[in-house]
Amino acid sequence: MSEFKQGDCRLHYEIHGRGQPVLLVHGLGSSTRDWEYQLPVLKQHFQVISLDLRGHGRSDKPRERYSIAGFAEDVGALIRHLELPPVHLVGISMGGMVGFQLAVDQPQLLRSLTVVNSGPEVKAHSLRDWLEIAKRWSLSRLLSMEQIANGLGRLLFPKAEQQALREKIQQRWPENDKRAYLSALDAIIGWSVREHLGRISCPCLVVSADRDYTSVASKQAYVQQLPHGRLVVIEDSRHATPMDQPEAFNQCLLAFLHELDSPTTKKD
User: Fold this and answer.
1) Quick one: average pLDDT of 112-121?
2) pLDDT at position 267, please?
3) What is the pLDDT of residue 264?
4) 209 with 185: CB under 8 angstroms?
5) Percent of the chain with pLDDT over 70
6) Which of 68, 113, 116, 197 could make an S-S bridge to 92, C-beta 3.0–4.6 Å?
7) Over the range 224-243, which residues count as b (16 or more CB within 10 Å of their CB) and which as e?
8) How far is Cα 61 from Cα 55, in angstroms, rounded to an integer?
9) How far is CA 54 from the centre of its chain?
10) Helical spans, DSSP H, in 110-162
11) φ, ψ for residue 25 (rounded to 5)?
């Protein structure tokens, strides 16, 4: 197990493989285990670093107010700690938000950014938005982690043949420290860097499931604000695309990364 100190917080990370660095950032309530179907493939081509954000996994869970900017600073600190060149950052859901924040705050640390089923803001723009956010905020406080896990497993993996994936969620989610989980959820609500997307200079790949929580159209709208953004849609997938469609996801991610690291691209 590898760890480093960011201030008073001990953060867990893992490193596999050799080559150009690819840094994987998980979503809310998850950990390095988000990437179990990507690691065997990616480590054949790259040095793969995965991190447990503070409040998650095997990292410390300080009693404090978390923020997306704070999570991004932790990621930046890890890059500096390992003395890495600019990295290919891949983030899912909340991890994608952290990636957007880092691309705005410390663009020199990124070679590219891949965001999966995520976006540059979590703000209400309609009554429906307000109601959905309020519902999630309230239920997260009223329900136990076991109840959340059962509901989330059914939502993410509804097919009969996805029983093993449902069981992973049902086993792992209750391991969360609920106080830290709620603090991370609060960090998401109201966050935005959308007004700064034009400043993101690195190539950006936005991966959207066709059945994600937010629509493909909403992602296409913000991709158009990215100077070097592109959108890929993966079909028959929900919010946990790297788990429910790992082969399709790995293929599009590898194609993007290899394109950027090709000799022709490097000359450009």
Assistant:
1) 98
2) 44
3) 56
4) no
5) 97
6) 116
7) eebeebebbebeebbbbbbb
8) 4
9) 14
10) 127-142, 145-156
11) -125, 120
Alpha-carbon span 9 to 11, nearest angstrom: 6
The band of 118, judged by pLDDT with boundaries at 50, 70 and 90, is very high
- Please report where in the chains the tokens 């690291």 appear, as a residue: 261
Tell me which residue of 265, 235, 230 sits closest to 249, measured CA to CA.
Answer: 235
Question: Which domains, from first to last, does the chain contain?
Answer: 2-123+194-267 (3.40.50.1820)
187: Cβ–Cβ under 8 A, 6 or more apart, which residues? 65, 66, 67, 68, 70, 71
pLDDT digits (tens, 9 = 90+) for 34-90: 899 999 999 999 999 999 999 999 999 999 999 999 999 999 999 999 999 999 999
> With 0-12 CB in 10 A as exposed, 13-18 as middle and 19+ as buried, what is 149?
buried
Question: 52: which 2 tokens?
Answer: 């447990």
How many residues comprise the chain? 268
Instruction: Calculate the alpha carbon distances from 220 to 44, 92, 231 in Å.
Output: 31, 17, 7
What's 55's DSSP letter?
A: T
| pLDDT mean across residues, the chain | 95
Rounded to 5 degrees, φ, ψ at 179 are: -60, -45
Q: Kindly state the percentage of the chain with pLDDT values over 90.
A: 90
pLDDT at 128: 83
User: Is pLDDT at 16 greater than 60 in this prediction?
Assistant: yes
Distance CA 225, CA 102 (A): 17
Separation CA 260–CA 202 (nearest Å): 10
Nearest partner of 119 among 52, 25, 192, judged by Cα:
192
